[in-house]
Amino acid sequence: MSTPELRQRQALALLWVMPALWAVNYIVARLAPGVVAPHQLALVRWGLAGLVLALLARDELWQQRQHLRAAAGQYLVLGAFGMLICGAWVYLGAQTTAAMNIALIYTASPVLIAVGAAAFLGDRLAPRQMAGVLLALAGVMHVVVRGHWLALSEVTWVAGDGWIVLAVVSWALYALLQKKWPSPLGATARLAAICGGGVLCLLPFALWETGLASTPDWTWRATGLSVAAALLPGLGAYWMYGWSQKVLGASRVAVALYLVPLYAGLAAWVVLGEPLGWHHLGGAALILPGVLLVTRVPAPQPPGPGGRLS
What we know:
Order of helices and strands: HHHHHHHHHHHHHH
Radius of gyration: 20 Å
Structural class: mainly alpha
Distance between the termini: 20 Å
Shape: globular
Number of strands: 0
Number of domains: 1
Largest sheet: none
Strand content: under 5%
């Protein structure tokens, strides 16, 4: 097996692991209110993640210091989209909106990424992949409405929904800009640089929260939530996303987001004791084949006349 083919298969395998790590963020968001303020949680999360990444990639970051100076504005923008808006604002929205609303809104993110990739990056989805997107979307909708499609008419919108909508749009921009702005850095060094930009964006908001009377005192529980968010949905999921996107492209990697509500439901069942219903199994029966259709590597074509691949 050639190295490019091996990298592609590794990236496809990571698409099934990445959403499980992101699902941890749902648990953290559920446990954070009253324990740690949103921007403080995001700051410690990405500060820890960035420190670990910078230590791992310190030689590469030093060698590429001229690039980092020249592209500092890009990393600041990516940090704002990926760590401030998609980090702290998700925690902020989770304080007032329901889990069903969050899942419904986040369902739109792969669609935004696929449309944006086709419009601005030249990516194209084959008919088989489009069918997989629709099948996975139907599965996600089945999960979030608990198998009762009429529940869509009962969804109420609150202030938190607006924060989540902004986070979804921001995530699409984060994913597309990473592809639009190629970088000589590897996945680890690039994420470290983006974390640096995110920390700079988060710092003034976290300091502002410190002076609020409603901000909880820092406790060991706040530290535990921050470390969990840093290591799993932070270090793990973001690194996998950035590396896989370089290998597979923005639209193919985006379909992995369809698995997040399914994995989050399983995590809530195991960790928080929330019931696992038949609607989760029905959604899985649609989501998993849909992801396979989008991510499956086409079989090699037989050699054509003259021994060349047609």
